[in-house]
Amino acid sequence: MNSTMNETVELDAQLQELLPVIQKGLPGSHESWVRVMRKGALGNFFRQGIPTTRNEAWKYTDVRKYAARLSSVSVDKPASDISVEAISDFYFRDLDCHRVVIVDGRVSADLSSLIGLPAGVRIESIARMLAGEAHLLEPYLHDQHLSGSFAELNTAIMHDGIYIDIPDGIVVEKPIHLLFLSHGRGEGSSHIRNLIVAGEYSQATVIEHFGSLGESRALINVVTDVELHAGARLEHYKLQQSDINEVNIGSVRVHQHRDSYYHSHSVAFGAALSRRDIHVELNGEGAECALNGLYLVGGRQHVDHHTRIDHVRPHCRSRESYKGVIDGRARAVFNGKVVVHKGADQTDSAQSNANLLLSDKAEIDTKPDLEIHADDVKCAHGATVGQLDMNQLFYLRSRGLSMDEARNVLMFAFADEVLAKIKEPEVRRYLEQVAFEKLPCGAGLEGMLV
Predict the structure, then answer these.
(1) Which helix (H) or strand (E) holds 177?
(2) Residue in 199, 222, 208, 195 with CA at minimum distance from that of residue 138
(3) Is residue 377 part of a domain?
(4) Distance separating alpha carbons of residues 88 and 209, to the nearest angstrom
(5) Same domain, 393 and 253
């Protein structure tokens, strides 16, 4: 037995002993359905095990080398020595919003501000809900169809997160900014659960934003469940700016009723390894979704996106566009699947994945996929992998730009096609600035960004 196998066996034994003990002290343990749910999820996690590259869904992504971080689970209260000034770099300049700050997986009331919420809208800590109003969560957490061991582990030991409930007909004018920060206190893991319930014909914008206060070697495991009732509209952002040593794994599961609209913006800039799974179920006639994604990685970063859109009912529409810029020895993975179920006639779906490789050591594994079980549909998908266009570079050089400037203009224009779809101008400007600085020589060319 080699050293890697020995480490795996030892870690599995540690988790078998540790996790049931942690469960006993988690919020909601007084509720029988919560205990049953957690116990079942933990059993599923142990049966599935931590994914290896032998798992088809993890074929290109080796998470085992970071798995030891699971042996330390953060369930402490958030650090009290963090000031508003210390986290202000993660604010969107001039954006008037409701803000909740979560530090090391725990909600910090001192750093949060929810003044002026519309009447009836609730934004609460999941820990608090499990402790006192768990019955409100049961319809959404108890009967989830989980996929993957990290989602099972999240259900088994989730210790906090955010619950958002928007009543029928309510429009939340100001965006809701959920800021998840790692404090950089060693190698540990946080397991965060978010739940967004949007009533009939309600509207909201929710921004899930991940960052690090200093160097962080944490493993963040986040599951966000979204329930959109008839006619509801949600703009949903997943912005990942984690420290280069961090691991950020998460999944989003969206259930849509008739005439609802879901718009996802997934942006990944940081982390040693990041993975985002998004599963959208269009389960009502006239439902519509749009998934947009951007990843800019370099060095030895690894970024992975898996999406699945299920067209269950007729007359639904989906659009998906992911773009990546990969440099150094970085690796990106994109696996997008659209399933058109029997009876889902008049489906209209389009999917694309485009990538720029800036180095002969950079890699992209891309697989757009269609599975169609209905006849009267309009579906398209495609993927491209390439390098910068030499003719375009020559043109820009002929207009007086240096090679670095020309390269950055083309790379930024390529990436900004995704960012341009962001409706909040303050968020778009913030991300454009971060994206520009991520490009080679970008930090020295800030004057080019308008």
Answers:
(1) strand 176-182
(2) 195
(3) no
(4) 13
(5) no
CA distances from 397 to 14, 393, 438, 445 (A): 59, 6, 22, 15
Give the strand pairing for 233-241 and 317-326.
unpaired
Chunk the chain into consecutive blocks of 10 residues (it has 450) and report each block's average pLDDT, rounded to whole numbers. Answer: 61 85 88 92 91 91 90 70 86 94 91 93 96 92 71 93 97 97 78 97 97 90 97 97 94 96 96 96 97 95 96 96 94 96 95 93 93 93 87 81 82 88 93 84 53
Residue 161 lies in a domain: yes
The CA distance from 51 to 61, in Å, is: 9
Q: What is the pLDDT of residue 321?
A: 96
Locate tokens 């998908």: which residue?
381
What 401-406 contacts at long range (C-beta under 8 Å, 24+ apart), as own/partner pairs, is 404/440, 404/441, 404/445, 405/441, 405/445, 405/448
Residues 130, 264 within the same domain: yes
| Six-digit token string for 286 | 């006239």
Overall number of domains in the chain: 2
Same domain for 179 and 43, yes or no, is: yes
* Residue 201: per-residue pLDDT: 98
- Say what the pLDDT of residue 4 is: 56
Which pLDDT score, from 0 to 100, does residue 1 have?
A: 46
For residue 136, is it within any domain? yes
Residue from 24, 139, 22 nearest 74 by CA? 22
Residue 303 near residue 330, CB atoms below 8 Å: yes
Q: What per-residue confidence (pLDDT) applies to 79? A: 63
Determine the structural domain holding residue 145 and report its residue range: 3-282
Single residue among 227, 249, 282 that ends a domain in this structure:
282
Domain end: 258, 282, 306, which one? 282
Distance CA 208, CA 122 (A): 17
The answer to whether 415 and 435 have CB atoms below 8 angstroms apart is yes
Q: Are 57 and 160 in contact (CB under 8 A)?
A: no
Clarify whether residues 278 and 394 are in a common domain. Answer: no
Q: How far apart are CA 44 and CA 146, in angstroms?
A: 10
Residue 88 counted as domain residue = yes
Taking each helix axis from N to C end, the angle separating 3-24 and 32-48, rounded to the nearest 10 degrees, works out to: 180
- The residue behind tokens 């043109």 is 395
Same domain, 397 and 259: no
Task: Output the pTM of the full model.
Answer: 0.93
Alpha helices in 216-324 (DSSP H): none
